[in-house]
Amino acid sequence: MDEFLGAIRKEVKEHRARYDGGEPKDLIEMLLQARQEMEDEGSDDMKMITETRIIQTVANVFDGMELILLPMIQFLSGIDSAILTLLWCIGLLVQHPNVQAKVAAEVDKVVGRDRLPCLNDRDNLPYSTATLFEVMRYSSIAPLSLPHATSKEVQIGSYTLPKGTWVLVNLYSMHFDEKLWDQPHKFKPEHFLNATGEVRLLPEGFMPFSAGRRVCVGESVAKAELFLLFSWLFHRFKFAKAPGMEGTDYSESVSVLLGSMVIENDVVVEKRF
């Protein structure tokens, strides 16, 4: 593992030294470009895309791609939420090839085939962005978020919560609330599109990064990172069920500790161009 991370550190350092801000040629340059775009915009989130974070992301992606391509997908302790979300992306879009085709067609139309997707493309890829958000809603990989605790005695309605009481936010119940979502148990990117086809950025009941003052501090960075990886994957590759697995539901999941993980299945990966 030390040799693996050392090789990635060396690669990131070399990329940083030679990257001139032009069109990114690979994942590392995409992340460097994202950092530069945030810096140009004066975004404070730029500080969160550190070299350490880039190294971690590249390591996780290579680990995750190995999981996708091997016959059996195993849950490894080093996998983080981004990789789990990408595994869900593949499982759900394999199960819904019509959605996968629409995403690929939209990215082809906007990005073309001579460059990689970048953050500036996000506003012009509403269906792809909506699909990613729908994966995050449908998978709810952290259905109860992370446990928190009250720092003092709190009164909520008729209930008194003593100091130190564990508090869990039931994100799953919000993500599948029939009062907030039309057919919540159906995978529909349209859940995140309004009548004019624009993305619904903050619909009520969508909280994949938890809520309140303890919301995930890396939310904006994680969304940017997932968008880049998601759009790149379905721009360059086509994913399909393995022969003999046509009747298998690739959207089924299994509970792991406090999380949700898509069930392992063989996948056929084909380069689109």
UniProtKB/TrEMBL annotation:
One of its GO terms (molecular function) is oxidoreductase activity, acting on paired donors, with incorporation or reduction of molecular oxygen, reduced flavin or flavoprotein as one donor, and incorporation of one atom of oxygen. One of its GO terms (biological process) is xenobiotic metabolic process. Pfam families: p450. Its cofactor is heme. GO terms for cellular component: cytoplasm. The keyword Iron applies. SUPFAM superfamilies: Cytochrome P450. Heme binds at C216. The keyword Heme applies. Keywords: Heme, Iron, Lyase, Metal-binding, Monooxygenase, Oxidoreductase. Belongs to the cytochrome P450 family. This is Steroid 17-alpha-hydroxylase/17,20 lyase. It comes from Holothuria leucospilota.
